[in-house]
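Sequence in, structure out. Go.
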Amino acid sequence: MKEKYAGAKESFQEYLEETKYVANTKDLKEADASYYVAYCALNLFNPDAEKLFLQFLKDYPWSTKASLAYFELGNFFYNTKKYQKTIDYLEKVDKEKLAEDKLIEMRFKLGYAYFSQKEFEKAGPLFDRVKNGTHKYSYAASYYSGYLELKNGKYDEALVDLKNAGQNEAYAPIVPYLLANTYYQKGEYDKLIAYSEEALKQKDIQEKKELYLLLAEAQFKKKNYEKSVVFFQNYAGSQKSLPAPIQYRLGFSQYMTGKYAKAIDNLKPIAATEDALGQTASYYLGLSYLKVENKQYALQALGKAAQETYSKEIQEEALLNYAKVNAELENLNEAITALKQFSKSFPQSVHTQEVDELLGEAFLKSNNYTEAINYIESLSHRSLRLNTAYQRVTFYKGIEAFNNKNFEGAVDFFSKSTSFPLDKDVFLAASFWKGEAYSIMRQYDKAINSYAEVFQNAEPGNVYFLKSRYGIAYAYYNKGDYEKALPHFEKYVEALVNAKDKLFYDDAILRLADLFAYNKEYAQSIKYYNQAIQNRNPELDYAQYRKGVVQGFHNKDAEAIESYDRVIELYPSSIYYDDALFGKAELLFSEGNFEKAISLFSQLIQEKPNSQYIPYVLNYRAIGYRNLQKYDLAIADYTRIMQEFPSHSVAIEALSGLQDALNKTDRTEEFAKYRALFAKNNPENKSLVTIDYEAARSLYNSQKYEKAIEAFNDYIQKYPDSPNNPNARYFLAESYQKAGELEKALATYKEVISEKRSDFFTRSILRIADIYFEQAEYNQARKYYQLLLSQTNSAKERSIAWGALMEAYFKLEKYDSVQYYADQITQYSKFSMDANKASLYQGKVAYKKGEYDKAIDYFIATINMAKDKNAAEAKYMIAKIYYDQKKYKQSLEVLYELNNVYYVYEEWLGKSFLLIADNFIQMDEVFQAKATLQSIIEKATYKESVKEAKKKLADLEAQGKEGDKNE
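Output:
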């Protein structure tokens, strides 16, 4: 064939040379010869063919073969896939001069050229003119027309053309996907499914994977999720990842068919995105976790969906479920916050009644009392359930205020609680504790009325009936109405004498003994003191001492001295040690046994130099010396009274005794000096001094500390010899401390303790110790706490010192000393909160030593004593031990419990969430870790936790940890 065209071309060229043609002449043969030279060159793929045709067209534009020349050029470039040139030449063809078959061919190829150049609006009409008929281009034209009609949304026309194209074996393998897609776009899912399932039986079908996807989408639309899962999986094949929308629908289908673990796998990566699909995926991821009983992971997913606003419907359902799961897990604070947010964001929701009921239940269990009370009080209409919740939360808030020593606030809350007497047990408890608060505030008449509310409404077997018996007994006792107090104490003791739980029996029996002593029923009094001693009463030293006092009143001096001796010998550290010494010495003195009495008085002065008895002891000893005619010694004691206790009640008696002793020793000239000293310290008119002192005290009590500092300094300067100065100096130091001038406060407190004359001597020691402790100067703090222990008679101050020493030694890493003071608290403190703290520190010491089992035992004991800050730290430490031991699931369980019960303690709440995130990181649950850290950043109020969470989250992002696995 090539030789044929080559020969023809040569012949036509020879002819043109022989005729010596002239361009643009009207010679038909020359024109035809010029055309055929170009035509042959074209068929020989001669690179000059285009030039030859263009020369022909230039020389013979009138030729009947001009249209054929354009056609052949366009056809040539079509075959070489140079579609722009195809378009350029075919558009110049005179269609009227083409034969029908050439015209059809030209239109198809021109249409295809436009199609290839994405000029679909020009291609479409050309395919439409070609597609009808039985020529060789009809099927191809139908295919491309159908494609464009599908693209332009002309689905009915597309179906006709694509079905027609599918009759041709060349297009039969590629048409099914387009036809299925057309059915999908029309929403004719049944037809799509029927057609596609039949088409998939063909062996050579193309785009089979995409056809699976259309089948999956159609089944998804029809909610045939079992089948959609199959076809989505067929589409996915061995792919490791899918486009997000497809992976979401696969995950959703798996959720709907109960394949929750697989749903979690597919929904989790989509849930991590920040868009509408991510919100929906988070919601169903949360529901999937709920189905596999992983509520903690569900919370993170539902929480994310609830925070996003792309879909209000999803946000509403997610927020409701988030609140419900928190309530189920008893994360009550978070549940209440979410439920309140729900009510605010979706006031017209169909879930409103359910939310109100959930909120009421959460408030009943909650200890976020302030928020609960404020919310309930803000409502214009309250259900019975909410009023029941209100009765409880106001009661609990009252208990919280009571424990924080805000007794007035406690009374207010207890009164609110008792105004809704819906739950009788709560009403009785609130009435009792209101009585307790009034008693502490010394409003005894109101206390008695509150205790009476319990008596009027409780059965005798009720625990608050018995406690109120004790409370009302003490209220009468503290009022000084001993006649009414005694029968209540007596009935209380009778009720508990054989009980397993003794409550306050040990204390009550001592008060009963005291009251019988007051009524001068000494035999009865001694009987109850003896019972206390036989029962190993915790206050054995007091019982033994008071027994001696009563025996003395009962004129049984020998027995009284024996009782005092027991205190002196058995309890040398007792706060009643100096009382017993003084009582024994006083009895011996009254018997005229001055030598022994003086010996005991001297012992008391030496061993207890800060005892309250010192002025009396000096006076007694001086009298004894006078009776023994040892006047110089008597004078020494009297002058000491005048110098150290010039305004004490014994001073006037001491002045008289001093005068007598001086007269006996011919030293009468010295008396004037001491008389003047007495007069100076006991002026007849003390009003001005008192007014100035009280004015300064008033400024201090009003918390106007700057002005108080000025007033106390002026007072001390103005009245340098005032007997009020030791106490004034103490209040000056207090004012400095409260004004933040700690160095001046320390200096002034030290003046107070160096004088040893203030009523606040031991309290000043405590203040110094506390300041040093707050400044982290633990060695200095330790010195003063130990000084306090050597000087105080107060059980409370002893407990405070033990607790502070325990903490200080822990900071100093001297763990044996921590253990010693923790033991002191456990054995001797009368305050349960101290024992709770001691147990915590015993656990912390064991933790530091690596004795984890022992530490956990101590921490559990701490938690069992009280649900307070110490318990929160103990709970955290247990979780930390499990974390250190790589027991991450156990650690998480403990931390979730901590968050449920102790969420009011912001520091430990923040730290617990950080440890939760650490556990997730170690478990490679990065989605959960990030969600936890983000929650801390958005919600936590403890700044240190937020700062640490930001750092951890940034570290995670920097590491690019995207891997995540399920449990």
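Check: Residues 384-403 form the longest helix (20 residues). Confidence is low (pLDDT under 50) at residues 961-967.
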